[in-house]
Amino acid sequence: MSDSTSIALVTGGNRGIGLAIATALKAAGHRVVITYRSGTPPTGFDAVQMDVTDSASVDAGFAKIEAEIGQPEIIVANAGITKDTLVMRMSDEDFESVINANLTGAFRVSKRATKGLLKLKRGRLIFIGSVVGGVGAAGQVNYSASKSGLVGMARSFARELGSRGITANVIAPGFVETDMTAELDEKRRSDIAAQVPVGRFCSAEEIADVVAFIASPQASYITGAIIPVDGGLGMGH
Fold first, then answer.
1. Domain assignment present for 117
2. 3-state secondary structure of 212
3. Domain region containing 204
4. Alpha-carbon span 42 to 40, nearest angstrom
5. Tell me: the pLDDT tens digits for 114-147?
6. Could you tell me if residue 233 is inside a domain?
7. Rounded to the nearest 10 degrees, how much is the dihedral formed by the CA atoms of 102, 2, 69, 43?
8. Which residues form the Ketoreductase domain (predicted)?
9. Is residue 143 among the annotated active site residues?
């Protein structure tokens, strides 16, 4: 990376883990642009509307950022959805829509970003995966497949672009404190936490801190890696 004032793009940066990542990157000195699909973006960040399931929307979003702000050199592919259900009830649409948002969406964003990164001759592609991409999860055949697919994709980007100063890595969170997990009853929460060697859920900030490190000059020789932030749940998967 050239300096601490580089531009970082965080897809789905308007809430949850994405917003925590945007906040950490801003604190590290980057100019942060977040994408959001609907609603009102949070204050304190540059924001652009972008639907990662639509190539034209991705292209228009990047064109706006490049024209008005500059070339993003840290790309955090975080936007994603879940449609959890047991496999016998999972429709083709349930499967395909999750793959389209989480995996193909990350591809659309990264491919479009790469045009600018090749001109800069540097950059970071950071994909937000999941521990279930390695260990699987009942009711999440679609989501697990999408997150597992990010690994092969990131490693292929790493091999293609490494000689141009561009790295590609996957951050793989475990169970995270979010609005969704906050709604679980106490017994379910303690049952889940009991599966984790460190005995608790992860905070969104703990994930964001790792993303900020991978975006930093100190991580310039890390590429093609899966960095688990899962309290030991995945144990190297």
1. yes
2. helix
3. 7-226
4. 7
5. 999 999 999 999 999 999 999 998 999 999 999 9
6. no
7. 70
8. 6-179
9. yes
